[in-house]
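Input chain follows. Return structure tokens only.
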Amino acid sequence: QERIVESGGGLVQPGGSLRLSCAVSGFTLSLSAMEWYRQAPGREREWVALITNGAGLTNYVDSVKGRFTISRDNAKNTLYLQMNNLKPEDTGMYYCHGRRNDLWGQGTQVTVSS
């Protein structure tokens, strides 16, 4: 059974860092382009970052460029999102998405507040 489970969210002060993890099972991470999305209360889900299969090329929404880094560990079948210099506007539920199978996780909450 294909499955995605996110973890690593929490409460952090502005300027702080978090690393989100996305553990996948039932499919091979390296064969799927993977994405992170986020959704703030009262707002639509927003695409945040992409890493392609194969070469592992990356792309980001402008608001997180230079602060967030998407990466994957194929041996662990795990995707990551390193988030630095967090801002209150980064607050939201963060979701991992597998493009090959259109599979979503349950999300992990990130709250940036002093």
